[in-house]
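Question thread 4412

I'm putting together a teaching handout and wanted feedback from people who do this every day. The idea is simple: show students a protein as raw sequence, then show them the structure tokens that encode its fold, then repeat with a second protein so they can compare. Below is the first pair exactly as I plan to print it.
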Amino acid sequence: MIETSLDGLFTDSSPTVSPTTMAADAAQQLRTPKTHALVVVNETDRVVGIVTESDIVALIAEERTELTVAEFMSSPPVTTTPETSVLTAAKLMRESGVKHLPVVADGSYRGLVSASDLVPYVSRRRLEITWQGEPFSASDVTETDDPELQVAD
């Protein structure tokens, strides 16, 4: 596992919406490729909620499309900071049952990190490296059952 902070890993250009955005408009934004969540920010750029694809699916199933984002967003959202380690973020996602974490610094929204962003850094496999003269060589790849290293789907 590569231990690093989230700084530089999160998507800082992820779309945001206001609490007054209509559900249909949020759904339209979620149709954009690689957009799986919308962070809800208020007029002072404070994160107040999050809307995911599954929230929109639930609305459609309930035939409740004439709502504003504020009426169905997940709030308060589980957030993190750029200084948070990848492992800590993965644990937070698993424990909270979420796949996306808004990244907040100095009280303002900075970006979004998703479980898929963490996968290259949090692996169920551990590579054991031993020195056998020059160069380094990989001698073994072993499974780990350590639940601390698993990211929720």
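The second pair follows. I'd like the answer to focus on this one:
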Amino acid sequence: MIESLLVANRGEIARRVIRTARRLGVRTIAVYSEADADLPFVTEADEAVLIGPASVAQSYRNVEALLAAAKTTGAQAVHPGYGFLSENAEFARAVEAAGLIWVGPSPEAISAMGDKINARNLMAAAGVPVAPGTTDPAASVDAAVSAAAEIGYPVMVKAAAGGGGMGMGVAVDEAALRTEYDKVRAFAERMFGDGAVLIERYFPRVRHVEVQILGLADGTVVALGERECSVQRRNQKLAEESPSPAVSPELRARLLAAAVRAGEAVGYRNAGTVECLLEPATGEFFFLEMNTRLQVEHPVTELVYGVDLVEEQLRVASGLPPAFDPAALAPRGHAIELRINAEDPKRFLPGPGAVTTWVEPAGEGVRVDSGYAAGTTVTPFYDSLMAKLVVYGDDRAQALERARAAVAAFEIVGPKQNLPFFAELLDNAEFRSGDYDTGIVARMR
């Protein structure tokens, strides 16, 4: 097992990684910006290194500062968490070039899946279903219009280098496409340094279902079930659950088999997620993208499958076999995750601030992965995620009731927070029925 680990991240996910590493006897090194000096993850690590000011470019995306921290502390490995540099192939290469162990997939796999068009083409060649779309970037707005005429409206305009729901727009006709193309291209150039645009069929009523995969040290790729991620605002996930209420045993078998093929196609190692769009009416699903990292919503899989995914990441990176029997994988019970964000519960606009009260719910089946506590401050410099409230039950009905009680018991005073939205969601008839899609939040508003 790796003996020392630098956690190249912050907040909730840094605490999450540190918790498992400590249990395994792995020495942990946290890195933090000046804005995060008072957060719990800094003191919970065995060692902590200040790497720069609040700006992500000068701190959590500063490759030189991260590698210097690893060198001065004698770290053996680097865990990137999610976000920041977690899907940056050049960072992974730099880590390995420095003689360190990268806790993630190979830089080649990250690169292959980082470009949506290349990923689509690779998946199609591997026999994974993909939605109708372009096999090359739409080099001009006229090329996009020609592609859309062939695919059929409505279409999704997507940044080829994007991820996490960023850099996307929907066009219902040519006029809208011309507007969206320019917007997405400009956004992609600004955010990703790559203005390549993909045109893909848009499905108005669709569910977002993803499969957790794990590439083992021996080269085997296994799938640990699916997660339902259709509760979204602005293409950003708010709540997830596992198993998906929309997935039958037959569909699950097809989804998991396709996800394994996707991983095998790129020689995948470590934890990753194959994201799909599911048409509820037909049971057809299409590859959306592969996230080459640990997902925010990984706890629901952990609870349903009884697996610690961070431990498995560390075991793969150490060349060790898994701590579970891949042949015995089977879902038990039901888990729901709610992303507690520092944002207005109606318009979902960020609302940072000092935390004066922080009381987490407890009880059977309740888990809270948090990045904050009373006396800390949610700053405007980073993502608004404060905590993940995760509940588990013997079935979905019990999980829903435990979630309602946990939301009512969670007390946060200071920054704005979206707990009232989750109280509304958990009482929503459409959500409670399990028959919902990616438009549910818009319909609630």
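Top answer:
Good format. For the second protein you could add a caption like this: The chain has a mean pLDDT of 96. The radius of gyration is 21 Å.
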